[in-house]
Amino acid sequence: DRALRRFAQAYETLERLIARAPGEAGPYEMRANWLVDQTGSTEAAREVLANAKTADPMINSWLTLEYLDRNFAEALELSEELPTKDAIEVIVASYWQGSILRALGRNQEAEASLESAARQLEALIASRPDAYHDLLAFIYAELGRESDAIREARRAASGEIEADRFTGPTMEENFSWILAINVEHEEAIEIFDRLFETSYYSAVNKG
Predict the structure, then answer these.
(1) What does the CA dihedral 19, 23, 24, 29 come to, rounded to 10 degrees?
(2) pTM score above 0.85
(3) What phi and psi, each to the nearest 5 degrees, are found at residue 120?
(4) Distance between CA atoms of 24 and 29, rounded to whole angstroms?
(5) Of 30, 61, 202, 207, which residue is 20 to 30 A from 3 by alpha carbon distance?
């Protein structure tokens, strides 16, 4: 329903899912994410998470809201609670911490955290060359490595589009964002114009 921009039906389905499994965190987090993406309301998203009937702390969702609301000190505290059970979770935590430290003006610490995330992810990609290029693109972008960020985002988009027309356009969306922040506006706009006419999971948020 979301991919086809049937918003009302999608929300109804999600509400039924919450009613059937009130202890599961996923549906609440999805509801909060949709509210932010479609309305820009972090206040409404916070209400959803605060009233969720789950024991899951939903650290990622709360961290995202604190970051969006520019509560960077609170976001940094939450980032210390992110799961780090596997290599990707460690890298994501380092990326988050680097981004937050940058926002706090603690640039030397931010650089160290982001460089660590980049090195670990580069090593992981060496053994899995078909994966994680989108995440590496965002890390490079935070480090100011413009050409590297564009290269990795382009690689992620081309690979995912060929493999999956449902989630592939999300990689194109990420690519256009990387292009835009690196002043490649014309190509970014061309991609966004095409995506507005495409049915895919995350584009409906922008509808």
Answers:
(1) 80
(2) no
(3) -65, -40
(4) 9
(5) 61
